[in-house]
Amino acid sequence: MKRPAAALFLALLLSAGAPALAALSPAEQKMGVTVDAEYDRTVALLEKLVNQNSGSMNIAGVTAVGDMIRPELEALGFKVEWKPMAAVKRAGHIVATHKGKAGTKRLLLIGHLDTVFEADSPFQTFVRKADEAEGPGVGDDKGGMVVMLSALRAMQAAGTLNDANIEIVLTGDEEDAGDPVSISRADLIAAGKRADAALDFEGLAVEDGKDMGSIARRSSNSWTLSATGKSGHSSRIFSEAAGDGAIYELARIIAAFRKELPEPNLTFNVGLVGGGQSADVDKDGVRIAVTGKTNIIPPIAVAKGDFRTLSQEQTDRVQEKMIKIVAAHSPGTDAKISFERGYPPMAPTEGNKALLAKLNGVNADLGLPEMPTLDPLKRGAGDIAFVAADVDGLVGLGVASRGDHAPGETADLNSIKRQAKRAAILMTRLSREKR
Prior knowledge:
Elements: H1 5-16, H2 26-37, H3 39-50, H4 59-74, E1 79-84, E2 92-98, E3 106-112, E4 127-129, E5 132-134, H5 142-158, E6 165-171, H6 181-184, H7 186-194, E7 197-200, E8 205-207, E9 210-212, E10 220-229, E11 232-233, H8 246-260, E12 267-276, E13 278-281, E14 288-291, E15 296-297, E16 300-308, H9 312-327, E17 333-343, H10 350-366, E18 393-395, E19 401-402, E20 410-412, H11 414-431
Parallel strand pairs: 3-6, 3-7, 7-18
Antiparallel strand pairs: 1-2, 2-6, 4-5, 5-20, 8-9, 10-16, 10-17, 11-15, 12-16, 13-14, 19-20
């Protein structure tokens, strides 16, 4: 009787005593064989997903990608629900659950269906170039979703998925979250409260040829600053009666931010400025229409920007410093600042570090190098941050890629194999731990 190719390959590895597999159980070895055997299937699914536009505002496109993912999860025994998000003007989310053995750890897997490339983008097509592929979302995050599915299929083939308690949340608006987040992230936050570990399948960070482990993501907070002054003839500027005018007050504040705010893991940016006789911000907050003359002291000035932090304590402290700077008004002026908190921080907790240590145990058993910790300054905000206060987590279980969020986004297809093997073994081991 002819032996199946996958079984023959496994037998050869075992008979050779391959050192990279020496510490792996037979089930874990089978997972690796399955990932390799299904590689072409995984890449074909990636191509299909990428060729369906799913920009965050393309409601039909995001829904179509969800419809492609649903049968893949149902075939693995997941109960799949579509959570519509019309209330926040977005498509919706997939929430999928797999019930396993009682009393064992519950895992939350996170990814997203949408991309930054809307339906009118000229960048729309999957193009394979040997061991790489170019296309919208090929790395962020359609590559991550196929890694997740490849790992789960490997677990199913090895029999380790049966007892695993897993919940999957694939958001449809990670790149442009619906407002308010109390609605658009309610399902994700609830899942985080139920979980014992969270694994985020966004892209793998690679530095100098080394795969990096991500245990932190910084927050994303926005602010709006408005300054006012007394209007009048420019010849009276800085006088006791006229004061400094709104634009000088705005400039004072921004300069003070630059001088007084810097500290480790903090960045802050001014993205939009305008001032004069009038300064009207549009309803989307991305344009300012101004009027004015050189011989008129400006009565109004507006600026908008963001700041990013590594912990909630840092967010609170920086916000207090900004408020204090704003309050030290120049003569004859007033100013106010308001804040909008977007993505919370994911701090580098001891629990997150312990998860990375377990992943590095998997790496050692696979014969892969240890993954050093990535500097959180090199990673943007993401959905896992919404559950970071409730559950330990890891980021970066998706594909390695470059040029994300821009035409030419390119994924390293070979990284699918090692990432899926890492994820399958890590999920198997975590799912067997007692709660």
